[in-house]
Amino acid sequence: MFFERPEGGETSILVHIQLQSEREQEDPVEFEELVRSSGADPVCFIKGSRKSPDARTFAGEGKLEEIANAVQEYKAELVLFNHSLSPSQERNLEKILKCRVLDRTGLILDIFGQRARTYEGKLQVELAQLQHTVTRLKRGWTHLDRQKGGVNLRGAGETQLELDQRMIRQRIKNINKSLEKVRAQREQGRRSRKRAEVPIISLVGYTNAGKSSLFNAITHAGIYEADQLFATLDATLRQIQLPSYGEAVLVDTVGFISHLPHKLVEAFRATLEETVQADLLLHVIDVANEAHDYYIEQVHEVLTEIGAEDIPCIQVLNKIDLLEGFEPRVERGENGKPSRVWVSARTGAGIDLLLAAISEMIGEDVITRDLTLGPEQGRLRARLYARGAVSSESVDDSGSTVLSIKLPRQDYERLLQEDNLISGHPAQH
Prior knowledge:
Elements: E1 11-19, H1 28-37, E2 41-50, H2 61-74, E3 78-81, H3 87-97, E4 100-102, H4 104-115, H5 119-133, H6 160-195, E5 200-205, H7 211-219, E6 236-242, E7 246-252, H8 262-267, H9 269-276, E8 280-286, H10 292-305, E9 313-318, E10 329-332, E11 338-342, H11 351-362, E12 366-373, H12 378-386, E13 390-395, E14 401-408, H13 409-423
Parallel strand pairs: 1-2, 1-3, 3-4, 5-7, 5-8, 8-9, 9-11
Antiparallel strand pairs: 6-7, 10-11, 12-14, 13-14
């Protein structure tokens, strides 16, 4: 008999089965955070263990009976599994439990659907949701069979299921075309920044590590931040001024999570390209979380999957305000370059150290010298100040202006060349 699926519900039963056959287990604590981030209300968490999942219902008969009893007791409208379920397993579970069943991937997709704000983000989420849904359509139409022949009984030659699948495939095709346009626009923007030689710094990290808080602390952009998983989905770019360097672009990106569904990595390719094209990565780590070492490994796995593992990186150990006896500091690697910076995005502690470390990493080829300018070179002086390249200014015995400057070599040479073309008088240095 066909079971009508409810439109939705918040009262939820959570299920986590420890599988001996799986090398890497899902985290039940993180799963509960995911559920709460989705807006659902977990009333019962059922846990168990098996050698391997049951092919038909994932959980065994005894555990299935326990789940069914909990659904009845709490009048639950939703059962959430901390695992990836096959379409047939979801269908079988819904028939037995008489309520909606969602797996880990479906839960993450639901959260993404709630959080997407931009046109691009909404397209990417819809694409991932459709790719996930197209294999699960059958459960919604098991009550409709192919219409049989006979007088006034002949159908159009397709079942409703086939019609829906065709419509979804067409929608996926249209979304991919729209995303290609978005990617072309992004690529054009990246080429413009490359021509202007503006470095790109991308924030990466596990979800809820504090990337958006750090982004706001550096840029004062006021973008949405919250103590929940996947608070940010859409890439946000802001221009910043780095001390002793000048202009750069800072990018806030979607957070990573363990075993991120591959279809989500594919769908968010346009956003993740901002990470792949970056000159420097800031790997934000919630150092107050006991599992931060495991989360670091998970982020490295995703960076490797998208081809960003070789980009220079600074680890930003965030939330030191939640730890006792930790002060902002910079740690250096064997090459003498900054490798770790301890900060608190919430209090602003260590942000100045982080900006200095970024300047050092991306400004390896930096000119530091005194520049003597004549009276006719006021425009060059103004441009150097606008770049934040002037550390001090004085006047020599001849009345010329002497600027102590520090800025990237390519910027220095370009500014001097442009000044020579304008004034015809080279600067003395």
